[in-house]
Specification:
Elements lengths: L9 H27 L6 H22 L8 H5 L2 H36 L10 H5 L1 H21 L12
Helix pairs in contact: 1-2, 2-6, 4-6
């Protein structure tokens, strides 16, 4: 088995840290609640925020590794020349959706910063939570573009397993 250098993907690390943190603060909250009949006030607010990080970080990893859910029936029966056109069409659809998410997420983050709005639970600035939406949406666009380039070149990642 050939050895390959490990891939450094910041969004994969971010998603992993978010998942571990969600597990730890949720477990801590359960233990404290059952032992003291009180709970940590910050757990829900942080858990929701970390879940968004986990979702978008995982989506960026999936976009890079060509592992997003899609209908592959058409891909299996198209000739190679038409297949490249389909890859570009898939990329355009993904970039359109994530581009809109990045654009409106940026506007939303700027508004939260300008209005100095605070989170309802802990009173932290909301922009700290919201700024990750456009940043990670842009990361997904970058990873989709890298994946498109690999697919157009005919490169297949050996880790990708499609069950169809």
């Amino acid at each position: 088995m050939p050895s390959r250098p490990p891939k450094f993907r910041p969004e994969a690390w971010l998603a992993s840290v978010a998942l571990i943190t969600i597990c730890l603060i949720s477990l801590g909250n359960v233990v404290v609640r059952y032992t003291t009949d009180a709970s940590f006030a910050f757990t829900e607010e942080f858990s929701v925020f970390l879940l968004v990080l986990l979702t978008f970080g995982g989506a960026a990893v999936a976009a890079r590794n060509n592992q997003h859910i899609r209908i592959e029936l058409v891909e299996h029966y198209l000739p190679p020349a038409a297949l490249k056109g389909l890859f570009v069409l898939q990329w355009l659809a993904g970039v359109a959706v994530m581009g809109v998410t990045t654009w409106y997420g940026s506007i939303f983050a700027m508004q939260e910063y300008d209005w100095e709005s605070l989170s309802p639970g802990l009173g932290l600035p909301n922009w700290i939570y919201v700024i990750w939406l456009p940043v990670l949406s842009a990361a997904i666009i970058i990873r989709m573009t890298q994946n498109l380039i690999d697919r157009l070149r005919g490169k297949k990642d050996p880790e990708v397993i499609h069950e169809s």
